[in-house]
Design goal:
single chain, 481 residues, mainly alpha, Amino acid/polyamine transporter I, two-stranded parallel sheet, 2 strands
Length: 481
């Protein structure tokens, strides 16, 4: 996988910028720097196990296929169903958080040039609609150019981070801090939680940045030699992302304006005001649109894969491929389903200004849990690494369902648990109504007589061979002409 797609998967600048207020609420510089390093190392333990499994089973089905192949025979269908729904809800909500967060960043940027304008909830939602429309048009009608956009995004991100490093370090219009402050200042007064818990709450931006690393697998059937390229991309994502994150964060903590001023921004997105104060002029660094396009594409592929295995309502429709305007085959109906879910969930913002953190929390919880299940079932990087990965995910599930700050009100409450439980109930009801009758798990190659619970090393990598049904290029799958 090309470095451009790896850097796009990292989305470091966006992942930090969009929810950066949680960094500030959760303690400030200490949480930003050392929390970033801590989460990077914890994520690396998870990625090492995922990459090992992915090298054996490189498929766009991802975690739910891995869980199916690695689970005991009696539990494999149910565990696969659970993992698939966790993955699906995770990719829907992370795509929503990126599209919605990009809209909020646009609102924040507009506020720099027009400080008298304060966007209402419905205006923010309309900007979100514009963002999701642009990302949809690109993904549907210009699908063949997505690799080029990944490359552009990679260069844009790298150059932008270097420019920020240089300009912030030189300008420092809001003042400079010494190393003791930049690397050691911790203030949990904005959170209302005890200092220790506030630090953990503040880890949300770091966890969010790396939460989509497992989604790299969703592009398996559009990548050459996926058994080699996908695991490499997964593993490279974390150290590359960690370094890029530190390069992005260090100049910020050394030139950080007053945290109280930043958190008082009406848009809830202090990043634009932060850089305006640091640079001493009105400047905006936008990368959200690139991320929105990339993540929307990946979400549609994951949706399509799950529908193909008859785990969604109307699977024959959502597994259908189309050629809109004569383009390459794409899962158009799966894309439209993913987009519709995002539009409906986005309506939560009309009732709660804390909706964005709720979307982020659901994405982190669901994707984390779906990635942890196959690792918990089987992973061979060592029991200690697997245990660290699973324990971190279990802890983060509790952590990111909590409100960011106390006291929590109806407007500031974290609704991640509500969305999570809602989708969990739907998946359970749908399994009882339809899934238990039709879902038998993802298709697997013919066994060679060995048990499905045997070591992965003894099985042939049949996904990487051509024994499994091909996808976008398979004539047996329905394709609209």
């Amino acid at each position: 996988m090309k470095i451009g797609r790896i850097l796009t998967a990292c989305a470091t600048a966006y992942g930090i910028s969009a929810p950066i207020s949680t960094f500030l609420i959760g303690g400030g510089p200490v949480t930003m720097i050392w929390g970033w390093v801590l989460v990077s190392l914890l994520t690396l333990s998870l990625v090492l196990s995922l990459a090992e499994i992915c090298s054996q089973y490189p498929t766009s089905a991802g975690a739910y296929y891995w869980t199916f192949r690695l689970s005991p025979l009696r539990a494999r269908v149910l565990l696969s169903w659970m993992t698939g729904w966790l993955t699906l809800v995770g990719v829907w909500t992370i795509a929503l958080s990126v599209n919605f967060g990009t809209g909020q960043l646009i609102v924040a940027a507009a506020g720099i040039f027009h400080p008298e304008w304060e966007a209402s909830a419905w205006q923010t939602y309309m900007i979100f609609l514009a963002v999701i429309t642009v990302s949809s048009v690109v993904c549907i009608f210009f699908n063949r150019y997505l690799p080029l956009l990944d490359t552009i995004c990679a260069y844009w991100t790298a150059i932008g981070i270097i420019v920020i490093l240089i300009c912030a370090s030189v300008k420092a219009a809001a003042g400079r801090h010494n190393a003791a402050y930049a690397l050691g200042h911790f203030d949990a007064s904005q959170a209302g939680w005890t200092p220790g818990w506030a630090f953990f709450i503040g880890l949300l931006p770091a966890a969010y940045t790396f939460s989509a690393v497992g989604m790299i697998a969703s592009m398996a059937e559009e990548v050459r030699n996926p058994a080699h390229e996908l695991p490499r991309a997964m593993v490279y994502t974390v150290p590359i992302g960690m370094v890029m994150g530190l390069v992005f964060l260090l100049p910020i903590v050394f030139t950080l304006p007053d945290i109280g001023t930043l958190l008082s921004v009406s848009s809830g997105q202090p990043i634009a005001v932060m850089f305006t104060l640091i640079m001493g002029n009105k400047a905006v660094f936008m990368i959200g649109m690139f991320c929105a396009i990339s993540i929307s594409c990946a979400a549609s592929r994951a949706t399509w894969a799950f529908a193909r295995d008859k785990a969604l309502p109307y699977p024959s429709l959502f597994s259908r491929l189309s050629r809109p305007a004569g383009t390459d085959p794409i899962p158009l109906y799966a894309f439209l389903l993913s987009t519709t879910i995002q539009l409906l969930l986005g309506l939560i913002y009309l009732g709660s200004s804390a909706a964005f953190n709720g979307f982020v929390g659901v994405a982190v919880v669901c994707l984390g849990a779906s990635n942890a299940l196959p690792v918990a079932v089987l992973g061979r990087w060592g029991a200690s690494i697997n245990a660290i990965a699973v324990l971190w995910i279990a802890f983060s599930i509790v952590l990111f369902c909590m409100p960011t700050a106390l006291p929590a009100t109806a407007d500031s409450m974290n609704y991640a648990s509500v969305v999570f439980v809602g989708f969990a109930l739907f998946s359970a009801v749908w399994y009882w109504i339809d899934g238990r009758h039709h879902y038998v798990g993802p298709p697997v190659p013919q066994d060679n007589g060995g048990s499905d619970t045997e070591s992965m090393g003894r099985e042939e990598n049949a996904v990487g061979s051509t024994k499994l049904p091909k996808t976008f290029g398979d004539a047996e799958l329905p394709v609209d002409q």
